[in-house]
Amino acid sequence: MTFHARTLVNTWLVMAAILIFCFLGVRHLTSGKPGKMQNVLEWIVDFVKNLVSDNMNYEQGRPLLGYLLTLIMFVFFSNMVSVIPNLTFGLFEHFDIHFAQLDKIFDAKEYFSAAPTSDINVTGALALLTILMVIFLGVKTKGLHYFHHFVEPFKVFAIIHIIDMLAKPLTLAFRLFGNIFAGEILVKVIWMLPGFSVLPGIIPQVIWLAFSIFIGAIQAYVFTVLTTAYISQAVTPSEH
Questions:
Q1: Residue 128 forms beta bridges with which residues?
Q2: Full-prediction pTM beyond 0.85?
Q3: Which of 87, 142, 151, 210 has the smallest set of CB atoms within 10 Å of its CB?
Q4: Residues pairing with 112 in the sheet
Q5: What's the per-residue H, E or C state across the chain?
Q6: Cβ–Cβ under 8 Å, residues 74 and 12
Q7: CB distance 204 to 190 below 8 Å
Q8: Separation CA 236–CA 238 (nearest Å)
């Protein structure tokens, strides 16, 4: 079993960043004239509320609001880690620490930090959590009748529905992982271009980093909206 220390450390940093962000948003919570951070936090809440109401009855989906808010912020903040420069200057590089490769966590050769979502283990865990929630809420809402759609319109269709159920978490995990991991690879490639420390190298680097932020936001949205859609399919009564 491999212990991914870099992913673990960066995940802790992401969780700390989310807690700080939320604390700043509610620190001066008011129903009057809200501050900038409260406005941002309220916008995110309203955005997720609209996602829920667009996919299912809002009253039915309201209990999911906390999970979906956490999901979209965690994925977005995790994606943004890949555009943060490595300012640790190889903190552990000169220490002989072999446990979990701690000496490589802040490798000075890595110009940018590694996003947790560039690790397939993280995206796989998020996708697995989503599909387990889909099944759990489907059974909770419809009982064992939830599995009836596996044999509709014919029993032989159960094979297709099972494949579809297995494909959903795989596509969720690999879509997010592939986009973020590919972005990190391209950042490294651009950074190795001749003259990276002067204008010819800085321009493509800045352009790609800006594009990476856009891609990170889009992937956080896609992962959350697909999670909402899958849950909606599971809890919404079938029309006959």
A1: none
A2: no
A3: 87
A4: 85
A5: CCCCHHHHHHHHHHHHHHHHHHHHHHCCCCCCCCCHHHHHHHHHHHHHHHHHHHHCCHHHHHHHHHHHHHHHHHHHHHHHHHHCECCCCCCCCCCCCCHHHHHHCCCCCCCECCCHHHCHHHHHHHHHHHHHHHHHHHHHHHHHHHHHHHHCCCHHHHHHHHHHHHHHHHHHHHHHHHHHHHHHHHHHHHHCCCCCCCHHHHHHHHHHHHHHHHHHHHHHHHHHHHHHHHHHHHHCCCCC
A6: no
A7: yes
A8: 6
Nearest alpha-carbon partner for 61 in 233, 240, 222, 220:
233
How far is Cα of residue 9 from the mean position of the Cα atoms in its chain? 16
Separation between Cα atoms, residue 147 and residue 193, nearest integer Å: 54
What are the tokens at 233? 């399919």
